Every structure is written in C-alpha cells, then in structure tokens.
Amino acid sequence: MAAVKRKPLLSWTVIAPILGMAVLAAVWGRELGAFWVTVAAVALVATVLAAVHHAEVVAHRVGEPYGSLVLAVAVTVIEVALIVTVMAGGGEESSTLARDTVFAAVMITTNGIVGIALLVGALKYGMTLFNPEGSGAALATVATLATLGLVLPTFTTSESGPEYSTSQLVFAALAALVLYGLFVFNQTGRHRDFFLPVTAEGVVEDEEHADPPSTRTALLSLAMLLVALVGVVGLAKAESPAIKAGVLAAGFPASSVGVAIALLVLLPESIAAVRAASRERIQTSINLGYGSAMASIGLTIPVIAVASFFMDGPLLLGLGSTEIVLLGLTIVVSVLTIVPGRATRLQGGVHLVLLAAYLFLAINP
C-alpha cells in the first residue's frame, strides 16, 4: 500500500511560525525569567528556519529575482515598523535608533551575507560566478543611498548636530524612494536577466530544474512567511532585555544591543543566501544581500522622516568618523569584488573580516 502523503498543514514549517506567534503572545510585555527566555530563544530559531523554507518556496514559484525581492522587502517592512514602534516610546537612544539599525543592516548584508555566500560558494565550487551588470547596479544604488542617508548629515551645516534640516530630510527621503523604485523597476523589468544566476559556462539560468510548487502551496508559504517574519522580529524584541543584560554583564556598550538584534532579524536572509550559494546560485545570494541593504535604507529613511514630524527630539542620521571609514572601505572592496564577475574564497574572507572589524568596534569602540 502506498504511503499517505503528508498534508502541508501538518508540516513543521507551518506549525513553527504559529507556535512562534503563540510564544510571542505569551511573553510580550512581560519581564522574562530564565525559562521563558529559553522558550523564546528556541521558538525564535525554529521560526527563522521556517521563514527560510517558505521564502525559498515563494522564490521558486515566482522565480528570480522576484523571490529575493519578496524576502528583502518583507523583512524590511517589519523592521521599519519595529523601529517606529521603539522610537514612539521615546528614550535617550531613540534619536539614533534609525541610524544605528540601518547602518548595522548595511554592514551585515554587504559584508556578512555577501561575504559568507562567496566563501561557501568558493569552498564548494572553487570559483563563484555572478553577473557584474546587475550586481554592480545594485552596489551603486546601495552606495548612493548610504551616502545620502547616513554620511551627508554629518557634514551639512544647516543643523548643529549630525542631522538634516527639514527640507534636507524631505529631499533625502524622496531621493531614497526614487532610487529604490528605479532599481526595482530595472530588476524586474527589461534588464531582469542581469539579476539571474549564471552557470559555469556563463549561461543565464532562468529557473530551477525542479517543477515549481503549485499556486496553493506558494500562497500558503507566502502567508506563513509573513507570519514567521512577524514572529522573528517580535521574538527578537522580546529577547532584547535578556540580550541587553548579557551585553552589559560582558562589559559591552549598550549600543551593541542593536547590532545583536539586527543579526537576529537578518537570520532568514543570511541562511537563504548560504543555501543559494551551496547550490551555485551566487547571484541569488548577492540579490539578497544588496537588496536587503537597499530596502533597509530606501524604505526606512522615508518612513522615519515622516514619523519624526510627530515625535519629540532630534533625528540623528549622520555616522561618526569610524563608521564612515568602515562604510567607505566596504564600498571600495565591494567594487573590486563585483567588477570581475567572479570571486574566490579570498574575496569572501575579506568581506567577513570587514564585518568582524565592524562588530568588534561596535562592542569595543
């Protein structure tokens, strides 16, 4: 007798996000003891793994580069909502929260996600291949957005601190929206082939070899992906007091708590990028990395600009000198990595060292 095929609704990838939301409801707004901290951590890991699975199902159904775009935008939208919620609560650190979160996302994506994908791909296949036209366009957009949103406020003179005046902030927000919109139009329109994976023979692959999932399965995965992402961000927020206590106990500055939470929120994209690299689809990994950085700046700055008009206190966007040096070095190294259209484990290692330098200086400024 043939085995009965398990229904999708009984899959652990469906159960995990629902349980994650149940745990989130149980711990939200409470001071957590050791038991609930452990339960929330386990639920967080399971929800992250489920989010990666559903993102890959959706990506397989719609094809690249739409799949990478879905995950990047979904994570960023929830990330922006979390920033606005925390800023609305006020506090001394709220004025720099947007800047710190966006910069952490940029460094983690451009050096961490891209770097580990290149390293994994090179270790498995010897040489990683990707499309320099699409990757270069994405990198140029990230560099421009980061400079307009995070660097220039440090050097403008209309305000005394590292912040934009009202007119400058409006301009930066509109510029971010225009740039992000142009890139998405370019990525999904006439030049879509620039963002598709490349084979060892240099031929663009349009789809996976396996049959795509059904519409019903893809819609279920899309719904579960959104639930899982909400759970990831919410559980990361619920875990933040425990993370902060651990950070302070270790003697690290309080600002490094935001870095730890950013690492948790970006886990789904990081795991998805590594899986794509292990299947020799480095372009997908780069799409995830640069797309996430782009969405983080292009969507966060406009929303925060609008929210700042209804909140007390300044909105400090300008980076310090150390962060500007790290960002500049990251852009230069990324250009040298992307231009040839291929990379070895060396380039992956260089990017990971840059990420390590950022993380080290975040906890030991």
TrEMBL record:
<dbReference type="GO" id="GO:0015385">
    <property type="term" value="F:sodium:proton antiporter activity"/>
</dbReference>
<feature type="domain" description="Sodium/calcium exchanger membrane region">
    <location>
        <begin position="34"/>
        <end position="188"/>
    </location>
</feature>
<feature type="transmembrane region" description="Helical">
    <location>
        <begin position="34"/>
        <end position="54"/>
    </location>
</feature>
<feature type="transmembrane region" description="Helical">
    <location>
        <begin position="242"/>
        <end position="267"/>
    </location>
</feature>
<feature type="transmembrane region" description="Helical">
    <location>
        <begin position="135"/>
        <end position="155"/>
    </location>
</feature>
<protein>
    <recommendedName>
        <fullName>Sodium/calcium exchanger membrane region domain-containing protein</fullName>
    </recommendedName>
</protein>
<keyword id="KW-0472">Membrane</keyword>
<dbReference type="Pfam" id="PF01699">
    <property type="entry name" value="Na_Ca_ex"/>
</dbReference>
<feature type="domain" description="Sodium/calcium exchanger membrane region">
    <location>
        <begin position="221"/>
        <end position="363"/>
    </location>
</feature>
<feature type="transmembrane region" description="Helical">
    <location>
        <begin position="167"/>
        <end position="185"/>
    </location>
</feature>
<feature type="transmembrane region" description="Helical">
    <location>
        <begin position="218"/>
        <end position="236"/>
    </location>
</feature>
<feature type="transmembrane region" description="Helical">
    <location>
        <begin position="316"/>
        <end position="339"/>
    </location>
</feature>
<dbReference type="InterPro" id="IPR052946">
    <property type="entry name" value="Alkaline_pH_Ca-Antiporter"/>
</dbReference>
<feature type="transmembrane region" description="Helical">
    <location>
        <begin position="9"/>
        <end position="28"/>
    </location>
</feature>
<dbReference type="InterPro" id="IPR004837">
    <property type="entry name" value="NaCa_Exmemb"/>
</dbReference>
<keyword id="KW-1133">Transmembrane helix</keyword>
<dbReference type="GO" id="GO:0015386">
    <property type="term" value="F:potassium:proton antiporter activity"/>
</dbReference>
<dbReference type="GO" id="GO:0005886">
    <property type="term" value="C:plasma membrane"/>
</dbReference>
<feature type="transmembrane region" description="Helical">
    <location>
        <begin position="288"/>
        <end position="310"/>
    </location>
</feature>
<keyword id="KW-0812">Transmembrane</keyword>
<feature type="transmembrane region" description="Helical">
    <location>
        <begin position="102"/>
        <end position="123"/>
    </location>
</feature>
<feature type="transmembrane region" description="Helical">
    <location>
        <begin position="66"/>
        <end position="90"/>
    </location>
</feature>
<feature type="transmembrane region" description="Helical">
    <location>
        <begin position="346"/>
        <end position="363"/>
    </location>
</feature>
